[in-house]
Protein backbone atom coordinates (compact mmCIF):
# COMPACT_ATOMS: atom_id res chain seq x y z
CA UNK A 1 0.00 0.00 0.00
CA UNK A 2 1.41 3.37 -1.06
CA UNK A 3 2.04 5.89 1.74
CA UNK A 4 1.27 9.55 1.11
CA UNK A 5 1.77 12.90 2.79
CA UNK A 6 -0.56 15.89 2.93
CA UNK A 7 0.70 19.36 2.08
CA UNK A 8 -0.74 22.87 2.30
CA UNK A 9 -0.23 24.90 -0.87
CA UNK A 10 -0.41 28.69 -0.77
CA UNK A 11 -2.76 30.34 -3.25
CA UNK A 12 -4.49 33.63 -4.00
CA UNK A 13 -8.12 34.32 -4.96
CA UNK A 14 -9.23 34.76 -8.57
CA UNK A 15 -12.45 36.68 -7.87
CA UNK A 16 -14.47 35.25 -10.76
CA UNK A 17 -15.55 31.92 -9.29
CA UNK A 18 -19.22 32.53 -8.56
CA UNK A 19 -21.13 29.30 -9.31
CA UNK A 20 -24.47 29.69 -11.09
CA UNK A 21 -27.45 27.33 -10.96
CA UNK A 22 -25.40 24.88 -13.05
CA UNK A 23 -22.08 25.23 -11.24
CA UNK A 24 -18.96 27.04 -12.46
CA UNK A 25 -18.44 27.18 -16.22
CA UNK A 26 -15.50 28.79 -17.97
CA UNK A 27 -13.23 28.22 -20.95
CA UNK A 28 -10.70 25.39 -20.51
CA UNK A 29 -7.85 27.91 -20.63
CA UNK A 30 -9.33 29.59 -17.52
CA UNK A 31 -9.52 26.30 -15.60
CA UNK A 32 -5.95 25.49 -16.65
CA UNK A 33 -4.58 28.52 -14.82
CA UNK A 34 -2.42 27.43 -11.86
CA UNK A 35 -4.60 26.78 -8.78
CA UNK A 36 -7.87 27.85 -10.49
CA UNK A 37 -9.60 24.47 -10.15
CA UNK A 38 -7.89 23.82 -6.81
CA UNK A 39 -9.26 27.07 -5.34
CA UNK A 40 -12.82 26.16 -6.27
CA UNK A 41 -12.56 22.60 -4.97
CA UNK A 42 -11.01 23.68 -1.64
CA UNK A 43 -13.61 26.44 -1.29
CA UNK A 44 -16.29 23.77 -1.74
CA UNK A 45 -14.77 21.45 0.86
CA UNK A 46 -14.59 24.42 3.25
CA UNK A 47 -18.28 25.20 2.66
CA UNK A 48 -19.43 21.70 3.64
CA UNK A 49 -20.05 20.33 7.13
CA UNK A 50 -17.11 18.35 8.58
CA UNK A 51 -19.07 15.06 8.40
CA UNK A 52 -19.41 15.51 4.65
CA UNK A 53 -15.64 15.80 4.30
CA UNK A 54 -13.67 13.96 6.98
CA UNK A 55 -14.06 10.21 6.46
CA UNK A 56 -16.68 10.75 3.73
CA UNK A 57 -17.20 9.17 0.30
CA UNK A 58 -17.08 11.44 -2.75
CA UNK A 59 -18.10 10.74 -6.37
CA UNK A 60 -15.91 12.40 -9.02
CA UNK A 61 -16.81 11.95 -12.70
CA UNK A 62 -18.50 13.71 -15.59
CA UNK A 63 -19.29 13.84 -19.29
CA UNK A 64 -15.74 13.08 -20.42
CA UNK A 65 -15.08 16.47 -21.97
CA UNK A 66 -11.54 17.78 -22.48
CA UNK A 67 -9.67 18.43 -19.18
CA UNK A 68 -11.87 15.98 -17.24
CA UNK A 69 -9.10 13.39 -16.82
CA UNK A 70 -6.72 16.01 -15.41
CA UNK A 71 -9.43 17.38 -13.13
CA UNK A 72 -10.25 13.93 -11.72
CA UNK A 73 -6.62 13.40 -10.67
CA UNK A 74 -6.41 16.89 -9.09
CA UNK A 75 -9.67 16.46 -7.15
CA UNK A 76 -8.77 12.93 -6.02
CA UNK A 77 -5.49 14.15 -4.53
CA UNK A 78 -7.27 17.04 -2.83
CA UNK A 79 -9.92 14.66 -1.44
CA UNK A 80 -7.13 12.65 0.17
CA UNK A 81 -5.53 15.85 1.45
CA UNK A 82 -8.80 16.96 3.04
CA UNK A 83 -9.27 13.67 4.90
CA UNK A 84 -11.98 11.98 2.84
CA UNK A 85 -12.08 8.19 3.19
CA UNK A 86 -12.71 7.25 -0.44
CA UNK A 87 -13.42 8.53 -3.93
CA UNK A 88 -15.69 6.74 -6.42
CA UNK A 89 -14.94 7.27 -10.12
CA UNK A 90 -16.98 5.99 -13.06
CA UNK A 91 -14.84 3.92 -15.44
CA UNK A 92 -12.88 6.23 -17.77
CA UNK A 93 -14.14 9.13 -15.68
CA UNK A 94 -17.60 8.84 -17.27
CA UNK A 95 -20.88 9.29 -15.42
CA UNK A 96 -23.89 11.13 -16.76
CA UNK A 97 -25.27 13.82 -14.46
CA UNK A 98 -28.43 11.75 -13.76
CA UNK A 99 -26.27 8.67 -13.11
CA UNK A 100 -24.24 10.64 -10.54
CA UNK A 101 -27.46 11.52 -8.76
CA UNK A 102 -28.50 7.86 -8.87
CA UNK A 103 -25.11 6.70 -7.56
CA UNK A 104 -25.28 9.12 -4.62
CA UNK A 105 -28.81 7.98 -3.76
CA UNK A 106 -28.62 4.26 -4.56
CA UNK A 107 -25.08 2.85 -4.58
CA UNK A 108 -23.71 1.01 -1.56
CA UNK A 109 -20.01 0.15 -1.45
CA UNK A 110 -18.74 -3.33 -0.58
CA UNK A 111 -17.99 -2.02 2.91
CA UNK A 112 -21.47 -0.49 3.28
CA UNK A 113 -20.31 3.03 2.41
CA UNK A 114 -22.64 5.63 0.87
CA UNK A 115 -21.63 8.77 -0.99
CA UNK A 116 -22.29 12.12 0.68
CA UNK A 117 -21.74 14.23 -2.42
CA UNK A 118 -20.14 14.56 -5.83
CA UNK A 119 -18.10 16.81 -8.07
CA UNK A 120 -19.67 16.58 -11.54
CA UNK A 121 -17.33 17.64 -14.33
CA UNK A 122 -19.48 19.02 -17.12
CA UNK A 123 -20.45 22.17 -18.97
CA UNK A 124 -23.67 20.38 -19.99
CA UNK A 125 -24.74 21.25 -23.54
CA UNK A 126 -21.79 23.61 -24.19
CA UNK A 127 -19.03 22.57 -26.65
CA UNK A 128 -15.89 20.79 -25.44
CA UNK A 129 -12.23 20.82 -26.46
CA UNK A 130 -9.00 22.72 -25.69
CA UNK A 131 -10.54 26.05 -26.77
CA UNK A 132 -14.06 25.36 -25.53
CA UNK A 133 -15.85 24.98 -22.20
CA UNK A 134 -15.30 23.12 -18.95
CA UNK A 135 -17.43 23.11 -15.84
CA UNK A 136 -17.70 21.77 -12.33
CA UNK A 137 -20.57 21.59 -9.86
CA UNK A 138 -21.15 20.02 -6.47
CA UNK A 139 -24.15 17.80 -5.71
CA UNK A 140 -25.34 17.08 -2.17
CA UNK A 141 -26.21 13.88 -0.33
CA UNK A 142 -29.77 13.92 -1.74
CA UNK A 143 -28.23 13.66 -5.22
CA UNK A 144 -29.26 17.18 -6.20
CA UNK A 145 -27.31 20.37 -6.94
CA UNK A 146 -25.96 22.36 -4.02
CA UNK A 147 -28.54 24.90 -2.78
CA UNK A 148 -27.88 28.64 -2.82
CA UNK A 149 -26.83 28.58 0.83
CA UNK A 150 -23.89 26.34 -0.11
CA UNK A 151 -23.02 27.97 -3.45
CA UNK A 152 -22.99 31.38 -1.75
CA UNK A 153 -20.54 30.03 0.87
CA UNK A 154 -18.38 28.54 -1.89
CA UNK A 155 -18.22 31.90 -3.65
CA UNK A 156 -17.38 33.76 -0.43
CA UNK A 157 -14.62 31.23 0.25
CA UNK A 158 -13.14 31.70 -3.23
CA UNK A 159 -12.74 35.41 -2.51
CA UNK A 160 -10.62 34.87 0.60
CA UNK A 161 -8.85 31.54 0.03
CA UNK A 162 -5.17 31.45 1.00
CA UNK A 163 -4.29 27.76 0.81
CA UNK A 164 -5.52 24.38 -0.33
CA UNK A 165 -4.80 20.84 0.88
CA UNK A 166 -3.53 18.08 -1.39
CA UNK A 167 -1.73 14.74 -1.18
CA UNK A 168 1.35 13.49 -3.02
CA UNK A 169 -0.48 10.55 -4.59
CA UNK A 170 0.49 9.08 -7.94
CA UNK A 171 -2.15 9.36 -10.68
CA UNK A 172 -4.76 6.60 -10.45
CA UNK A 173 -5.67 4.40 -13.42
CA UNK A 174 -9.34 5.27 -14.09
CA UNK A 175 -9.65 2.98 -17.13
CA UNK A 176 -9.76 -0.27 -15.13
CA UNK A 177 -12.48 -1.30 -12.66
CA UNK A 178 -11.06 -1.93 -9.21
CA UNK A 179 -9.89 -0.36 -5.94
CA UNK A 180 -6.55 1.37 -5.39
CA UNK A 181 -5.68 1.86 -1.72
CA UNK A 182 -3.29 4.33 -0.10
CA UNK A 183 -2.39 5.01 3.52
CA UNK A 184 -1.35 8.03 5.56
CA UNK A 185 -0.93 9.02 9.19
CA UNK A 186 -4.70 9.05 9.82
CA UNK A 187 -5.65 5.81 8.07
CA UNK A 188 -6.58 4.53 4.63
CA UNK A 189 -7.75 6.28 1.46
CA UNK A 190 -9.33 4.34 -1.42
CA UNK A 191 -10.09 5.18 -5.04
CA UNK A 192 -12.70 2.85 -6.49
CA UNK A 193 -13.27 2.79 -10.24
CA UNK A 194 -16.66 1.21 -10.98
CA UNK A 195 -18.89 0.43 -13.97
CA UNK A 196 -20.51 3.68 -15.14
CA UNK A 197 -23.83 2.17 -16.20
CA UNK A 198 -24.85 -0.70 -13.91
CA UNK A 199 -26.35 1.33 -11.00
CA UNK A 200 -28.28 3.54 -13.39
CA UNK A 201 -29.61 0.61 -15.44
CA UNK A 202 -30.76 -1.14 -12.26
CA UNK A 203 -32.71 2.00 -11.29
CA UNK A 204 -34.31 2.33 -14.76
CA UNK A 205 -35.43 -1.33 -14.63
CA UNK A 206 -37.16 -0.62 -11.31
CA UNK A 207 -39.13 2.26 -12.89
CA UNK A 208 -40.13 1.01 -16.35
CA UNK A 209 -41.56 -2.19 -17.80
CA UNK A 210 -38.57 -3.16 -19.94
CA UNK A 211 -40.42 -6.17 -21.35
CA UNK A 212 -43.19 -4.03 -22.88
CA UNK A 213 -40.61 -1.62 -24.35
CA UNK A 214 -38.67 -4.61 -25.73
CA UNK A 215 -41.83 -5.82 -27.51
CA UNK A 216 -42.27 -2.38 -29.07
CA UNK A 217 -38.65 -2.15 -30.25
CA UNK A 218 -38.73 -5.66 -31.67
CA UNK A 219 -41.87 -4.97 -33.73
CA UNK A 220 -41.17 -4.60 -37.47
CA UNK A 221 -43.67 -1.72 -37.42
CA UNK A 222 -41.58 0.36 -35.04
CA UNK A 223 -38.23 1.96 -35.90
CA UNK A 224 -36.02 3.86 -33.50
CA UNK A 225 -33.03 6.21 -33.54
CA UNK A 226 -30.99 7.63 -30.64
CA UNK A 227 -28.26 10.29 -30.98
CA UNK A 228 -25.85 10.85 -28.07
CA UNK A 229 -24.08 13.70 -29.90
CA UNK A 230 -20.80 12.08 -28.78
CA UNK A 231 -21.66 12.88 -25.16
CA UNK A 232 -21.67 10.65 -22.11
CA UNK A 233 -25.10 9.20 -23.03
CA UNK A 234 -23.12 6.98 -25.40
CA UNK A 235 -21.82 5.08 -22.36
CA UNK A 236 -25.43 4.06 -21.59
CA UNK A 237 -27.11 3.86 -25.01
CA UNK A 238 -25.76 0.51 -26.19
CA UNK A 239 -26.20 -1.10 -22.77
CA UNK A 240 -29.83 0.03 -22.40
CA UNK A 241 -31.28 0.26 -25.90
CA UNK A 242 -29.38 -2.56 -27.59
CA UNK A 243 -28.40 -5.06 -24.87
CA UNK A 244 -31.40 -4.63 -22.54
CA UNK A 245 -34.16 -3.61 -24.97
CA UNK A 246 -33.12 -5.32 -28.19
CA UNK A 247 -32.81 -2.30 -30.51
CA UNK A 248 -30.53 -2.62 -33.53
CA UNK A 249 -27.05 -1.20 -32.97
CA UNK A 250 -27.49 0.68 -36.26
CA UNK A 251 -30.20 2.73 -34.53
CA UNK A 252 -27.52 4.46 -32.42
CA UNK A 253 -25.93 7.67 -33.75
CA UNK A 254 -22.77 9.33 -32.39
CA UNK A 255 -22.71 7.09 -29.33
CA UNK A 256 -18.94 7.06 -28.77
CA UNK A 257 -18.15 9.67 -26.07
CA UNK A 258 -15.48 12.13 -27.24
CA UNK A 259 -13.58 14.87 -25.40
CA UNK A 260 -14.65 17.42 -28.02
CA UNK A 261 -18.04 15.84 -28.83
CA UNK A 262 -16.77 15.14 -32.32
CA UNK A 263 -16.34 18.87 -32.92
CA UNK A 264 -20.08 19.38 -32.54
CA UNK A 265 -22.29 21.32 -30.15
CA UNK A 266 -23.84 18.73 -27.79
CA UNK A 267 -27.15 20.52 -27.43
CA UNK A 268 -30.21 18.40 -28.37
CA UNK A 269 -32.26 20.81 -30.41
CA UNK A 270 -33.30 21.24 -34.03
CA UNK A 271 -30.28 23.45 -34.75
CA UNK A 272 -27.43 21.33 -33.37
CA UNK A 273 -28.70 17.73 -33.65
CA UNK A 274 -28.42 18.00 -37.43
CA UNK A 275 -27.84 14.33 -38.24
CA UNK A 276 -30.79 13.11 -36.19
CA UNK A 277 -33.04 15.89 -37.50
CA UNK A 278 -32.21 14.88 -41.08
CA UNK A 279 -32.74 11.18 -40.36
CA UNK A 280 -36.14 11.93 -38.82
CA UNK A 281 -37.27 13.72 -41.97
CA UNK A 282 -37.11 17.22 -40.51
CA UNK A 283 -34.07 18.43 -42.46
CA UNK A 284 -34.14 20.99 -45.24
CA UNK A 285 -33.55 18.40 -47.95
CA UNK A 286 -36.04 15.60 -48.54
CA UNK A 287 -34.58 12.12 -48.15
CA UNK A 288 -35.81 9.11 -50.08
CA UNK A 289 -35.31 6.95 -46.97
CA UNK A 290 -38.38 6.52 -44.75
CA UNK A 291 -37.65 8.13 -41.33
CA UNK A 292 -37.86 6.11 -38.09
CA UNK A 293 -41.04 6.28 -36.01
CA UNK A 294 -39.20 7.63 -32.96
CA UNK A 295 -36.01 9.60 -32.48
CA UNK A 296 -34.29 11.18 -29.50
CA UNK A 297 -31.08 13.02 -28.66
CA UNK A 298 -29.09 13.82 -25.52
CA UNK A 299 -26.77 16.66 -24.52
CA UNK A 300 -23.17 16.37 -23.31
CA UNK A 301 -23.94 15.12 -19.79
CA UNK A 302 -27.17 13.29 -20.77
CA UNK A 303 -29.53 15.23 -18.52
CA UNK A 304 -31.37 16.89 -21.44
CA UNK A 305 -33.41 15.26 -24.18
CA UNK A 306 -35.11 16.02 -27.46
CA UNK A 307 -37.99 13.80 -28.61
CA UNK A 308 -38.99 13.51 -32.28
CA UNK A 309 -41.57 11.55 -34.20
CA UNK A 310 -41.45 10.82 -37.91
CA UNK A 311 -41.22 14.32 -39.47
CA UNK A 312 -42.52 15.70 -36.16
CA UNK A 313 -40.95 17.73 -33.32
CA UNK A 314 -42.25 17.45 -29.76
CA UNK A 315 -41.67 20.64 -27.77
CA UNK A 316 -40.16 20.04 -24.32
CA UNK A 317 -43.16 21.83 -22.77
CA UNK A 318 -45.57 19.42 -24.48
CA UNK A 319 -43.32 16.47 -23.66
CA UNK A 320 -43.51 16.87 -19.87
CA UNK A 321 -47.27 17.49 -20.05
CA UNK A 322 -47.80 14.31 -22.11
CA UNK A 323 -45.60 12.24 -19.78
CA UNK A 324 -47.58 13.52 -16.78
CA UNK A 325 -50.92 12.83 -18.48
CA UNK A 326 -49.95 9.22 -19.27
CA UNK A 327 -47.59 8.30 -16.43
CA UNK A 328 -50.00 6.42 -14.17
CA UNK A 329 -51.20 4.11 -16.96
CA UNK A 330 -47.93 3.61 -18.82
CA UNK A 331 -45.13 3.64 -16.21
CA UNK A 332 -45.20 1.13 -13.31
CA UNK A 333 -43.26 3.48 -10.97
CA UNK A 334 -46.24 5.88 -11.01
CA UNK A 335 -49.04 3.28 -10.83
CA UNK A 336 -50.14 4.49 -7.39
CA UNK A 337 -50.60 8.05 -8.70
CA UNK A 338 -48.61 11.29 -9.01
CA UNK A 339 -47.82 13.34 -5.88
CA UNK A 340 -47.77 16.54 -7.92
CA UNK A 341 -46.18 18.15 -10.98
CA UNK A 342 -44.00 21.20 -11.54
CA UNK A 343 -42.48 23.26 -14.32
CA UNK A 344 -40.02 26.12 -14.59
CA UNK A 345 -41.61 29.54 -15.09
CA UNK A 346 -40.53 29.99 -18.76
CA UNK A 347 -41.94 26.57 -19.70
CA UNK A 348 -45.36 26.68 -21.38
CA UNK A 349 -48.52 26.20 -19.34
CA UNK A 350 -49.33 22.87 -21.03
CA UNK A 351 -48.53 21.07 -17.76
CA UNK A 352 -50.81 23.43 -15.80
CA UNK A 353 -53.82 22.32 -17.86
CA UNK A 354 -53.02 18.63 -17.25
CA UNK A 355 -52.61 19.26 -13.51
CA UNK A 356 -55.94 21.06 -13.31
CA UNK A 357 -57.73 18.35 -15.29
CA UNK A 358 -56.26 15.52 -13.18
CA UNK A 359 -56.59 17.45 -9.90
CA UNK A 360 -52.85 17.33 -9.19
CA UNK A 361 -50.75 19.63 -7.04
CA UNK A 362 -48.98 22.07 -9.35
CA UNK A 363 -45.93 24.31 -8.85
CA UNK A 364 -44.31 26.99 -11.01
CA UNK A 365 -40.66 27.46 -10.01
CA UNK A 366 -37.63 29.49 -11.15
CA UNK A 367 -35.20 27.96 -13.64
CA UNK A 368 -32.84 25.59 -11.81
CA UNK A 369 -33.35 21.94 -10.93
CA UNK A 370 -32.70 22.50 -7.22
CA UNK A 371 -36.18 24.05 -6.91
CA UNK A 372 -37.74 20.80 -8.13
CA UNK A 373 -35.49 18.88 -5.74
CA UNK A 374 -36.90 20.72 -2.73
CA UNK A 375 -40.44 19.80 -3.77
CA UNK A 376 -39.46 16.17 -4.38
CA UNK A 377 -37.66 15.84 -1.02
CA UNK A 378 -40.88 17.07 0.62
CA UNK A 379 -42.97 14.50 -1.28
CA UNK A 380 -44.84 17.15 -3.28
CA UNK A 381 -43.73 16.42 -6.84
CA UNK A 382 -43.42 13.31 -9.03
CA UNK A 383 -42.88 14.67 -12.57
CA UNK A 384 -41.33 17.95 -13.63
CA UNK A 385 -39.77 19.67 -16.60
CA UNK A 386 -38.40 22.77 -18.19
CA UNK A 387 -38.55 24.14 -21.71
CA UNK A 388 -34.77 23.86 -22.14
CA UNK A 389 -35.12 20.13 -22.96
CA UNK A 390 -35.00 19.00 -19.32
CA UNK A 391 -37.49 16.42 -18.01
CA UNK A 392 -37.40 14.27 -14.91
CA UNK A 393 -39.06 12.71 -11.90
CA UNK A 394 -38.46 12.04 -8.22
CA UNK A 395 -36.39 8.90 -8.91
CA UNK A 396 -33.31 11.18 -8.71
CA UNK A 397 -32.66 14.89 -8.11
CA UNK A 398 -31.48 15.87 -11.59
CA UNK A 399 -33.18 16.04 -14.95
CA UNK A 400 -32.71 12.80 -16.83
CA UNK A 401 -32.55 12.52 -20.61
CA UNK A 402 -32.58 8.74 -20.93
CA UNK A 403 -35.42 8.50 -18.37
CA UNK A 404 -37.47 10.83 -20.60
CA UNK A 405 -36.79 8.66 -23.66
CA UNK A 406 -37.81 5.52 -21.74
CA UNK A 407 -40.94 7.34 -20.54
CA UNK A 408 -41.92 8.10 -24.15
CA UNK A 409 -41.16 4.54 -25.26
CA UNK A 410 -43.34 3.32 -22.36
CA UNK A 411 -46.23 5.53 -23.50
CA UNK A 412 -45.83 4.31 -27.09
CA UNK A 413 -45.68 0.69 -25.88
CA UNK A 414 -48.85 1.19 -23.80
CA UNK A 415 -50.77 2.91 -26.61
CA UNK A 416 -49.75 0.12 -29.03
CA UNK A 417 -50.16 -2.84 -26.64
CA UNK A 418 -53.05 -4.26 -28.68
CA UNK A 419 -51.90 -3.53 -32.23
CA UNK A 420 -48.24 -4.50 -32.64
CA UNK A 421 -49.43 -7.69 -34.33
CA UNK A 422 -52.01 -6.00 -36.54
CA UNK A 423 -53.66 -2.61 -36.96
CA UNK A 424 -52.28 0.89 -37.39
CA UNK A 425 -49.39 2.00 -35.19
CA UNK A 426 -50.18 4.84 -32.76
CA UNK A 427 -47.38 7.30 -33.55
CA UNK A 428 -45.67 10.10 -31.66
CA UNK A 429 -47.62 12.60 -33.76
CA UNK A 430 -50.91 10.80 -32.95
CA UNK A 431 -50.18 11.00 -29.22
CA UNK A 432 -49.40 14.73 -29.39
CA UNK A 433 -52.45 15.55 -31.54
CA UNK A 434 -54.72 13.55 -29.21
CA UNK A 435 -53.23 15.45 -26.27
CA UNK A 436 -54.01 18.79 -27.96
CA UNK A 437 -57.55 17.65 -28.71
CA UNK A 438 -58.02 16.89 -25.01
CA UNK A 439 -56.14 19.73 -23.32
CA UNK A 440 -55.66 22.40 -26.00
CA UNK A 441 -52.40 23.47 -27.60
CA UNK A 442 -49.81 25.89 -26.27
CA UNK A 443 -48.07 27.34 -29.32
CA UNK A 444 -44.58 28.00 -28.05
CA UNK A 445 -41.16 29.09 -29.26
CA UNK A 446 -37.89 30.23 -27.72
CA UNK A 447 -35.41 32.65 -29.29
CA UNK A 448 -31.82 32.50 -27.99
CA UNK A 449 -29.43 35.39 -28.57
CA UNK A 450 -26.06 33.91 -27.58
CA UNK A 451 -22.81 35.71 -26.65
CA UNK A 452 -24.48 39.12 -26.59
CA UNK A 453 -22.50 41.96 -25.01
CA UNK A 454 -23.25 41.61 -21.29
CA UNK A 455 -23.71 45.36 -20.76
CA UNK A 456 -26.16 45.63 -23.65
CA UNK A 457 -28.11 42.62 -22.36
CA UNK A 458 -28.46 44.18 -18.90
CA UNK A 459 -29.61 47.48 -20.43
CA UNK A 460 -32.29 45.66 -22.45
CA UNK A 461 -33.58 43.88 -19.35
CA UNK A 462 -33.56 47.09 -17.29
CA UNK A 463 -35.55 48.85 -20.00
CA UNK A 464 -38.18 46.05 -19.96
CA UNK A 465 -38.49 46.30 -16.16
CA UNK A 466 -38.91 50.09 -16.31
CA UNK A 467 -41.58 49.74 -19.00
CA UNK A 468 -43.67 47.56 -16.67
CA UNK A 469 -44.57 50.56 -14.51
CA UNK A 470 -47.12 51.71 -17.12
CA UNK A 471 -49.33 49.08 -18.76
CA UNK A 472 -51.04 51.87 -20.69
CA UNK A 473 -47.75 52.73 -22.36
CA UNK A 474 -47.02 49.02 -22.91
CA UNK A 475 -50.37 48.49 -24.65
CA UNK A 476 -49.88 51.57 -26.82
CA UNK A 477 -46.55 50.10 -28.01
CA UNK A 478 -48.13 46.65 -28.51
CA UNK A 479 -51.08 47.96 -30.57
CA UNK A 480 -48.70 50.12 -32.61
CA UNK A 481 -46.70 47.02 -33.55
CA UNK A 482 -49.57 44.54 -34.01
CA UNK A 483 -53.16 45.72 -33.63
CA UNK A 484 -54.68 42.22 -33.52
CA UNK A 485 -52.72 41.06 -30.46
CA UNK A 486 -54.52 40.78 -27.13
CA UNK A 487 -54.02 43.39 -24.35
CA UNK A 488 -51.29 43.07 -21.69
CA UNK A 489 -53.05 42.71 -18.32
CA UNK A 490 -50.10 42.02 -16.03
CA UNK A 491 -46.33 42.56 -16.09
CA UNK A 492 -43.77 41.71 -13.43
CA UNK A 493 -40.43 40.15 -12.53
CA UNK A 494 -41.10 36.59 -11.43
CA UNK A 495 -40.48 36.00 -7.72
CA UNK A 496 -40.77 32.62 -6.00
CA UNK A 497 -41.34 31.74 -2.36
CA UNK A 498 -40.36 28.11 -1.84
CA UNK A 499 -43.26 26.28 -0.14
CA UNK A 500 -40.80 23.95 1.58
CA UNK A 501 -38.15 26.21 3.12
CA UNK A 502 -39.80 29.65 2.57
CA UNK A 503 -36.69 30.95 0.78
CA UNK A 504 -37.39 33.73 -1.72
CA UNK A 505 -35.85 33.91 -5.20
CA UNK A 506 -36.16 37.31 -6.90
CA UNK A 507 -35.49 38.61 -10.43
CA UNK A 508 -36.20 35.24 -12.05
CA UNK A 509 -37.41 36.57 -15.40
CA UNK A 510 -39.46 39.40 -16.84
CA UNK A 511 -43.06 38.53 -17.73
CA UNK A 512 -45.72 40.17 -19.87
CA UNK A 513 -49.06 38.35 -19.52
CA UNK A 514 -51.85 38.93 -22.04
CA UNK A 515 -55.63 38.83 -21.61
CA UNK A 516 -56.01 35.71 -23.79
CA UNK A 517 -53.44 33.70 -21.81
CA UNK A 518 -50.50 34.50 -24.09
CA UNK A 519 -47.13 35.22 -22.46
CA UNK A 520 -43.83 36.89 -23.26
CA UNK A 521 -40.91 36.05 -20.97
CA UNK A 522 -37.39 37.48 -21.08
CA UNK A 523 -34.46 35.95 -19.17
CA UNK A 524 -30.70 36.29 -19.01
CA UNK A 525 -29.24 32.78 -18.98
CA UNK A 526 -26.25 31.76 -16.89
CA UNK A 527 -25.32 28.64 -18.87
CA UNK A 528 -22.78 30.18 -21.24
CA UNK A 529 -19.10 30.59 -20.40
CA UNK A 530 -18.70 34.12 -21.78
CA UNK A 531 -20.87 37.03 -22.84
CA UNK A 532 -24.59 36.86 -22.09
CA UNK A 533 -27.45 34.85 -23.54
CA UNK A 534 -30.84 36.51 -23.79
CA UNK A 535 -33.69 34.02 -23.93
CA UNK A 536 -37.07 35.14 -25.22
CA UNK A 537 -40.08 32.86 -24.68
CA UNK A 538 -43.31 33.33 -26.63
CA UNK A 539 -46.51 31.41 -25.88
CA UNK A 540 -50.12 31.41 -27.07
CA UNK A 541 -52.87 29.06 -25.86
CA UNK A 542 -55.44 27.66 -28.31
CA UNK A 543 -58.24 25.39 -27.06
CA UNK A 544 -60.30 25.30 -30.25
CA UNK A 545 -59.47 21.84 -31.74
CA UNK A 546 -59.97 23.20 -35.27
CA UNK A 547 -57.09 25.66 -34.72
CA UNK A 548 -54.46 23.44 -33.06
CA UNK A 549 -52.86 22.25 -36.30
CA UNK A 550 -51.23 25.49 -37.47
CA UNK A 551 -47.50 25.90 -38.02
CA UNK A 552 -46.10 27.17 -34.73
CA UNK A 553 -44.02 30.01 -36.19
CA UNK A 554 -47.00 31.21 -38.27
CA UNK A 555 -49.33 31.16 -35.27
CA UNK A 556 -46.82 33.05 -33.12
CA UNK A 557 -45.65 35.58 -35.73
CA UNK A 558 -47.74 38.50 -34.33
CA UNK A 559 -46.46 37.89 -30.78
CA UNK A 560 -42.88 37.55 -32.03
CA UNK A 561 -43.15 40.96 -33.70
CA UNK A 562 -44.49 42.44 -30.44
CA UNK A 563 -41.68 40.87 -28.38
CA UNK A 564 -38.91 42.13 -30.65
CA UNK A 565 -40.40 45.62 -30.85
CA UNK A 566 -41.22 45.92 -27.15
CA UNK A 567 -37.69 44.86 -26.13
CA UNK A 568 -35.91 46.83 -28.89
CA UNK A 569 -33.90 43.64 -29.38
CA UNK A 570 -32.02 44.74 -32.50
CA UNK A 571 -31.36 48.22 -31.13
CA UNK A 572 -29.77 46.89 -27.93
CA UNK A 573 -27.98 43.79 -29.25
CA UNK A 574 -27.24 44.63 -32.87
CA UNK A 575 -28.75 41.25 -33.80
CA UNK A 576 -31.30 41.02 -36.59
CA UNK A 577 -31.99 37.35 -35.84
CA UNK A 578 -31.57 34.92 -32.92
CA UNK A 579 -28.71 32.40 -32.76
CA UNK A 580 -31.12 29.52 -32.15
CA UNK A 581 -34.89 29.13 -32.49
CA UNK A 582 -36.61 26.20 -30.74
TrEMBL record:
Pfam families: PGM1_C_vert_fung, PGM_PMM_I, PGM_PMM_II, PGM_PMM_III. The keyword Isomerase applies. Keywords: Carbohydrate metabolism, Glucose metabolism, Isomerase, Magnesium, Metal-binding, Phosphoprotein. It catalyses: O-phospho-L-seryl-[protein] + alpha-D-glucose 1-phosphate = alpha-D-glucose 1,6-bisphosphate + L-seryl-[protein]; alpha-D-glucose 1-phosphate = alpha-D-glucose 6-phosphate; alpha-D-glucose 1,6-bisphosphate + L-seryl-[protein] = O-phospho-L-seryl-[protein] + alpha-D-glucose 6-phosphate. PROSITE patterns: PGM_PMM (PS00710). One of its GO terms (cellular component) is cytosol. Residues 17-164, 199-308, 317-417 form the Alpha-D-phosphohexomutase alpha/beta/alpha domain. Its cofactor is Mg(2+). Its EC number is 5.4.2.2. One of its GO terms (biological process) is glucose metabolic process. InterPro entries: A-D-PHexomutase_a/b/a-I, A-D-PHexomutase_a/b/a-I/II/III, A-D-PHexomutase_a/b/a-II, A-D-PHexomutase_a/b/a-III, A-D-PHexomutase_C_sf, A-D-PHexomutase_CS, Alpha-D-phosphohexomutase_SF, PGM. The keyword Metal-binding applies. One of its GO terms (molecular function) is phosphoglucomutase activity. Monomer. Belongs to the phosphohexose mutase family. Catalyzes the reversible isomerization of alpha-D-glucose 1-phosphate to alpha-D-glucose 6-phosphate. The mechanism proceeds via the intermediate compound alpha-D-glucose 1,6-bisphosphate. This enzyme participates in both the breakdown and synthesis of glucose. This is phosphoglucomutase (alpha-D-glucose-1,6-bisphosphate-dependent). It comes from Populus tomentosa. The lineage of its organism: Eukaryota, Viridiplantae, Streptophyta, Embryophyta, Tracheophyta.
